[in-house]
Amino acid sequence: MRSLRIARTIIKMRVKDRLYYPSRLIVDTVRIAARCGILLVLYRYVFILNGGSVNGIPYLIAAWSMFLYFAFSVLVLRHISQAIMEDVQRGTIEILFSKPISYLSYRMAFQVGAGLYSFLVIATIGVVALALSIGFPATMGLPMFLPTLILVVVLGGILSLIVYSIIGLLAFWVEDINPIFWMVDKAVMILGGSYLPVALFPPAIYKIALYSPFGATQFITHTVYETWQHEWYLKIGIQVFWITILGIVIHLVFKKARRRVSLNGG
User: Fold this and answer.
1) Low-confidence residues of the chain, pLDDT below 50?
2) Residue ranges covered by each domain of the chain
């Protein structure tokens, strides 16, 4: 309970920092508008040339799916890898180990707080903009949509933090984790539906996106499809499965990392 209170305090402090220094919000807004906006315009013309739909998927669904990916990316949970690597390289890891909160809990709370304000603002603006320009998918009007959306975002966030934290902890054994980070990050981008909606994936790639932890971090992009009302329990179950498995992995890796610090003095 004490750790949870400290984590909430850290998140609140980071959010207040963003309120007082809105430069990050401006940068994130420009980045999302440039990347997501251009993609949506390009896809609009592609769908028009194909009669309004591709493989039976209308532009409305594809646009919302891609937007949700980019909105979720504003949380920048992936940056926790670099933060952990820098702590190890600078030797500050020993100091942080002595704090009255688990190091990983501290880093995760710090990362959530760093992007939460931008996420809430940009997601709200984006939802209003898309609603006014192209409307809402029918799925978003279902009673189960909002509760399952919130649940899949929370679970996807936890899974993302675990995946990228494991990569960061490899800095105890690998001097530069960036090559590993790039490979995993690209896998998340591709399987998450950043540039191609998941519904347009070939069957084999879709299965990888569905059952791998990389695709599971981005199940938020699946919520606007008509199949979501029948498959949400399966996909949330997959997220819970990977959180459990990788939670055990990160516990073991972190335990070995702490032992390494104790034996080698950093």
Assistant:
1) 266
2) 2-264
